[in-house]
Amino acid sequence: MKPHKDKKELMELKHDAVPGYRGVFSVVFTLSLLYMAFILFQPCF
Amino acid sequence: MTNSVLPALIFMIGGFLIPFFKGRAKSVYMMFIPLVGFVNLINIPLGDHFLMNFSDFKLVLLHIDRLGLLFGYIYHIIALITVIYILNFKNDVEYVAGFFYAGAALGAVLAGDLFSFFIFWEMLTIGSVMLIWARKTKSSQAAGLRYLLVHAFGGLVLLAGIVLHYTETGSLEMLKLTLSGPGSYLIFLGIGINCAWPVLHPWLTDAYPEATIGGTVFLSAFTTKTAVYALARLFPGTEALIWIGVAMAAFPIFYAVIENDLRRVLAYSLINQVGFMVVGIGIGTELAINGACAHAFNDILFKGLLFMSMGAVMYRTGKINATDLGGLYKSMPWTALFCCVGAASISAFPLFSGFVSKSMVMEAAASGSHLMGQKSYVVVWLVLLFASAGVFHHAGIKIPFFAFFGHDAGHRVKEAPLNMLIAMGIAAFLCIFIGTYPKPLYDLLPFPVDYHPYTISHVLSQTELLFFSALAFTLLLLSGIYPAEMRALNVDADWIYRKSGKALYHAFDGILNPLNAWCDRVVRGTASRTAYFFKDAGAKISLFVAVNIWLLAGYRDQRLEIKKKKLYNDILHGTLPAGIGAAVTITFIFLVYVLI
Fold this sequence. Notes:
heterodimer, A: mainly alpha, 1 helix, elongated, B: mainly alpha, 23 helices, 74% helix
């Protein structure tokens, strides 16, 4: 192993949101939930 | 009887001779050992060999059957690959420990009785601890000691189980056991500790990332897989294993997602994959056992490949945390490629090895509803599906993404050394070969295989699962919801016994130490009072008798005090008047007479 001491070590690596994707995530997540609910409760209909 | 050599001895003795070789001869010799071992193994006929009488026991040091052979073959293959991988390290301790460890694992999976199995099982602990300590850091020393304590305890539990089982049945044969008596339960638990069952697992995620770079590759192959072998041999079809396996497959996902140390992520992933195997063994049908064994075979290869790729990254950059890595595909393209092959294999992508074995376990779970009941089956099936998606997320995406892609950490390093690339290349080739042409693997499995992984429904459902997992990861990352990678210590199940250990200590400190002090006071006080009393007991008794006589005789006040002092001093100085002595003696005899 060759540690590179000159590199500054990060305490935290955050993942910043890309504008617009929060909405996309919400839509996809909602649709996924509805789809899963439909599959799981299909025998009830 | 065979003319071959005990496979474990080839590794162990061969390993101890390594320090006597130098330079290129050492490298050639080290690769020679697993090759010779492999040739030796394939020439041993099925059946029992190396029978030995030890005290009243008839030991079978070598039992060759399809189950043991499967593990024997893959142990030789991974030993060869790992040896190639570590050729440039020039660390004799690591070499010797690695071969000793591999030999012990071979001995355990080829042992024909429980006692021989136990001996090799304990040797596994010695070899693995040496691999952890070989890194020679403070944290590795501490982790190795914790590992040793846990495995020594596990070994004792196993030994107690074997002894009880022997006294109950009079047999040491490695045959299927049922959970009926304390012996079988202890054997079950002893194996479970090495299998990293939930709550018993922290030794694995604690110690594996602390071992040497090559040591972690060795460790990922042998300890847990030997435990899987033992469960497949001794407890197939034990329903409890289904639920234990389900828990193993599910819970590490959450830890792996938030873990920063990428080798520790792989350690959690290792538990997750062993969970699939344990579920298969618990289901216990021929398909399920085949699936568990095939997955163990494949896991040794792809998990070894992933650990090797992370080891190469660590070797070149000196870093292993996700916070410190990223963008390495530019500097280490081959390592990145091999890592992606390992990631695709562990995620069970079609055409990669994980697909042809994990789908067997899933299929066995799907067809095992008659064994578990319909509702239980649905739960098992759903959790395994969830675990499949989870493993793709943390091992399939997270590992390559944070090491080689993602944010560029600015490391401009050389590609991994040639020997490391060759080792990773062989493992990657085998992952793809088995994934595209699984027949040779299926031919090695314990039971005849009538299973076809490449059906439209298998391929479509697995691909759908993986792509939706990828979509989830991408959207979580882009929308900023994905948890940040942080330098932190994640609280795991070891918290329970670290805290309960401290609480137990404080409880004992608060109860036993005061009790001890109180006992001390009582004993010392009683002793001193008794000693004080007996110091002039004769004088006091004599005074008691004499004073009453003097009172009757009319002595009072100062005259009485003078007589008391005189008598007291006379007795202490040994000048007791004969009359008083006679009176005390008579009184004593009278008292004895009355009391008796």
